[in-house]
UniProtKB/TrEMBL annotation:
GO molecular-function terms, A-Z: transferase activity
Keyword 4Fe-4S: no
Protein name: Aminoglycoside phosphotransferase
InterPro entries found in the cross-reference section: Aminoglycoside_PTrfase, Kinase-like_dom_sf
UniProt keyword annotations, A-Z: Transferase
Species: Desulfoplanes formicivorans
Record domain Aminoglycoside phosphotransferase: where: 126-266
Length: 359
């Protein structure tokens, strides 16, 4: 609960509005009884009376209540309020937004004036992109260190995924996003050329129908919600000497299905392996097995094999995309598309015999 005081409101108004500002009243809608501190942060609006250059005015300050409908996190709610701030000035007869702001961890109300785009400042870390290692391996330069790095990735994920959260609604949200979000399966499908000669509309329709069955299957696995990275692939890993590494761009709200992370990285071993032949073999098969075996040995999470298939579809659509990866040879792209079709056929993913999904 965010406690708002008269002084905090007055300071925010002075930093947001032009002219000389004096707060004269604060209370519930329909009342200006002085209330001092007021619980604020559960979607309950507050009526504010103030003077601006001596002219009496009123305003309403409100926030959003967190709920299970895609508003679990403060950044979800921020997006809605930013949308309202932007559109309120564009629609005729809509109430006009006077200010947009946030409450920091110290309880200060901080105004945001005329936002257009947002940015983030991160530390700079040393290292080379992991995909460069995979390109080296594809040229035949594989070492024991490459398998050791895959082992370290698996152990890092096992440690990350050890953190549990009991929130069935959030797991269901992640499943909805996996299938229907603009950044995930439905959005990726719409990003392919239409019609796409190498994966016809009828094949896309059949794929989507199978995924609806999987959506209902995953409803039985809400107990699996864990801390996840959400975008753990070779372009988001920086590697240093002695196989030390850093990760970039944690995505999709931290919490999700751990199979997402495992599928994301291991699908790229398949991608690079397909550049040599239409199946996983040689050094990439060895690295893939090392990654999966290490993860399962560390976690004992055999149940993941019952839920991971649609996450492979998501990542397969990403790396097979002619928009995101335009330079793939056609046979590589066709191989990935065959894989994401076939992987949905099994109730339990057979990671040891992955090549049966390449037929």
């Amino acid at each position: 609960m965010l406690e708002i005081t008269v002084d905090m409101i007055e300071r925010f108004l002075k930093e947001t509005l032009p002219g000389t500002i004096k707060l004269t009243g604060l209370g519930e809608i329909g009342s200006l009884d002085e209330q001092g501190m007021k619980d604020f942060g559960y979607g309950k609006p507050m009526l504010i009376a103030y003077e601006q250059d001596g002219v009496a005015k009123q305003a309403v300050i409100s926030s959003m209540r967190g709920d299970k409908y895609g508003h679990q996190f403060y950044w979800d709610r921020a997006a809605i309020l930013m949308f309202q701030y932007e559109t309120g000035t564009r629609i005729k007869q809509h109430v006009r937004p006077l200010g947009l702001g946030y409450a920091d961890k110290k309880g200060k109300l901080v105004p945001m004036k005329d936002p257009e785009e947002f940015f983030i400042l991160n530390e700079k870390v040393e290292g080379h992109d992991y995909f460069l290692d995979l390109e080296r391996i594809r040229k035949g330069q594989v070492t024991d260190s490459d398998r050791e790095l895959a082992r370290k990735f698996a152990l890092w994920l096992a440690d990350l995924h050890a953190e549990k959260r009991d929130d069935p609604d959030l797991y269901l949200r992640r499943t909805r996003q996996l299938i229907g979000d603009s950044e995930c399966i439905w959005g990726l499908v719409d990003g392919y050329p239409h019609p796409y000669e190498h994966f016809t509309p009828n094949r896309f329709i059949a794929l989507e129908k199978k995924l609806i069955d999987w959506r209902w299957k995953l409803r039985s696995f809400t107990h699996r919600l864990r801390a996840t990275h959400g975008d753990f692939h070779p372009w988001n890993v920086l590697v240093r000497e002695d196989n030390d590494f850093s990760v970039l761009d944690c995505s999709r709200g931290l919490w999700g299905e751990p199979g997402d992370d495992v599928a994301t990285m291991s699908c790229n071993y398949l991608l690079f392996g397909l550049y040599d032949q239409p199946r996983l073999s040689g050094p990439f098969e060895s690295i893939y097995r090392t990654f999966w075996d290490t993860y399962l040995d560390a976690t004992g999470d055999e149940e993941m094999l019952r839920v991971v298939a649609p996450y492979y579809v998501f990542r397969g659509l990403v790396i097979a995309s002619p928009e995101w990866y335009p330079n793939h040879p056609l046979e590589v792209r066709k191989g990935l598309l065959r894989f994401l079709e076939n992987v949905l056929e099994d109730e339990v993913f057979d990671y040891v015999h992955i090549n049966k999904y390449m037929e």
